[in-house]
Fold these 4 entries.
Entry 1:
Amino acid sequence: MLILPIVNNRRVMNVEIRLKGASKIRQSVLYDHTKSSDIIVNREKFSESTYHSSRDKNAPVDFIRSRSLLYPRDFLVTTKSEADSPYYDVYRVPQPPKKVNDGLDQLYSKTIQDMQNEIPGKPQRGRYVSFADLGIQEPLSAERIEKLQRILLEARDSSNLGKRIEEAGISDLPETASFLNHFECTILSDTTIPEESLQDTLKALSAINTRDYRNLKKYYHMAKENADIYTKISYISKIVYDKPLTLSHSDRFRQKQYVKRMEDGEYPKIA
């Protein structure tokens, strides 16, 4: 389970990241010539490819794209085997979006590996995601976002808008928002805590400086960084596509599910 810690509206939230459209199509199966924890694209297997031995963090998505050039279609991901048997589950996953940068590709690869590491019948282990560690924030400077906003404000003819954005060297900004829209971001409602409570806890623990304090401090810093980066991308999505990114509440904790937009944290308009 990939967990994105994020601060929103004075609350610290834990957001589960999954790929939209990915669905589990088989449970507890064992196919001939198909291994557990594998990726199968057009009958070709990740485990039998040169990508499998690669140390490149983006090897999974590179393999998927390379085997989809002629026939881009849904592919399969198998989980690990059940705890006491050789059986595993199978996901069907839509094609990945085109590459924007290594950081976003790494996020995509992590979601694929998350499915591969799933053990049916056992609680999934949570793994934190830091947008900053992935380098997703690097292209999102205020100057580049201001340039994008200026082009959008000055555009009189939408037919050449894409060309103007490309000529300005900032086409990766709307592509970043589009790429992130391929992920489903779900707030795990029962894990949300008031930001003030976390700050008070950190203040109380600061004097002893234990491992727990340092880990909690790192977690809070990650949540604030993620919020800043997510908000910038959401702002880009809003000004380009008139649709900000959204977080939804998990129906595993609530029967009622509704959409939650970033509150009071939208990237400020640049004059």
Entry 2:
Amino acid sequence: MASSVVVARTKTDGLEYLAEGAPVVWTATSDLAQQFSNVREATRAAMRLPSRFRAFALPVTPSVN
């Protein structure tokens, strides 16, 4: 089972994810989030953001219905 990792941050109404393509744009939909191949790369991207974003790497596994 392959998994991917996204960069996320918490908001009062849930999580937001770093969107793909733009330097610092956030989306509420995880499907539009930039995907990283491992936690290390996602953590590096999160740490390069300004500290006011308080972002972190979040492993994502596909849901099974």
Entry 3:
Amino acid sequence: MSLEKVAILDGREVWLAVLAAPEEAALWAGTAQPRGGVLAYLDGWSEAELTRFCAEILKLSPSELAFAGAAAASARAALTRVDPTLPSTARGDEPLDESVWYMFFASYEPDPATRRQPPLIVAFRDNDVRIAQFRLIAARFAAAMNEVLERE
């Protein structure tokens, strides 16, 4: 598993997580502060693996989860079985930059004590071809997010 900060916008950190197994999400403790957002691309994992991932993520108290890619609906269903109250979306076939834009602004609640925005973690399974695309977005994060606004 790898976890690296890839961008900062308006003081908010954006992290890239690459996972080999669902349980590796537990290693985000300390980075994934409460009320942070998670956007996950988990194509290829079984229902049991998706459920284990969701159980690990809930321990980190995110404000919202978004699932994208081919497994989005299955991952959201797994989350609903584990915790039906946590806000979540299935982004399905939407472009990567639009899903990142959505989660960056949807899960934007500052910590009441520090007034800092919680980080956004964008997670992929290892060997996902979208990792390279996300790195390009992160390298020019502000411009990439503005391009999404201009398209809409």
Entry 4:
Amino acid sequence: MIVLVTPAVMDGTVVRWYRSLAAAETHRPILSASRRGVQTHNDVYLHEIPTQVMQAANAAYETLRRDPDADLKHLATHRHRGPSNGPLVPVEEADNA
């Protein structure tokens, strides 16, 4: 599971879960959490989402409901490297660059 944490103009911080790196690179999340709530995407059924992912999404929503700009970077597994949303790299690699 790939997790990205990004700022959004209208929603503040948004956390998105992806099935794979390819899905993340093509912007096809299965689930997202923002101050507005937890939402499924791309015709994903709730029973297909692992329990721990749903729990993390609900916790992220509760945090973002109180503070839309909360720092949830600790949830991220990958980040964009470079300007203009460059390639996705694991957090450890991004932090050591």
